[in-house]
Design goal:
about 120 residues, mainly alpha, 4 helices
């Protein structure tokens, strides 16, 4: 027979509320990495560019590439720490699972692997 337990949690504590802010920060760093990647990559040579003989950048922009890497590593680190803090706190079956941290960890890890390989 299942023993009825009294719910002692009245409202989310400070650490539980900080998971929301860690999520905002990590997703913000991810989007910063996406925008930095857009400006760091070489420009695409379209037909009109070739026709008008315009100059385009065919190399990676080092300043934006550093921002891309720092933002991606920061996103990965914050997400990993958040998962490490969330995992031991969710012991009950009815606790909320925070799937966006897991999704962001996979996306950041795949992006880092793709960059370094």
């Amino acid at each position: 027979m299942q023993q009825l337990r009294r719910e002692r949690r009245q409202k989310p504590d400070t650490l539980q509320r900080s998971f929301l802010w860690l999520g905002f920060i990590s997703w913000g760093l991810f989007w910063l990495a996406v925008f930095a990647f857009n400006y760091a990559r070489p420009e695409i040579e379209y037909g009109l560019v070739r026709y008008w003989d315009l100059d385009i950048r065919s190399t990676w922009e080092p300043a934006h590439l550093q921002i891309f890497l720092y933002a991606l590593w920061g996103c990965f680190g914050i997400t990993l720490v958040s998962i490490a803090l969330v995992f031991p706190r969710n012991r009950r079956l009815n606790d909320n699972q925070i799937y966006y941290f897991e999704l962001l960890l996979v996306v950041a890890l795949v992006s880092l692997i793709a960059y370094y390989v």
